Amino acid sequence: MIRINVDKAKAVAHDMRRAKRAEEFAPHDEVIAKRIPGVAEAEAEAARAEIRARYAAMQTAIDAAQSPDEIKAALEA
Description:
Shape: elongated
Radius of gyration: 16 Å
Largest sheet: none
Structural class: mainly alpha
Strand content: under 5%
Number of helices: 3
C-alpha cells in the first residue's frame, strides 16, 4: 500500500500553483513593467487581479484539502 504524506503533497501543490500563476502573470507583468504605449495598463492590472483571485481560491482549497484527491481537485479548479 502506498502512503502519501498530505503535508508534503500540499507543499508540492503550492509550488505547482505558484509556477502556474507566474506563467499567467508574465505577459501582464511585461505590459506593466515596460509601460508599452498603446497597451492599456488598466486592462493588464484587471487581468492580474482576476488571476490573483483565482489562485487565492486555489490556495485556500489546497490548504483545506484532507486527501491527495482533494489536492488534485484544487489544482484542477
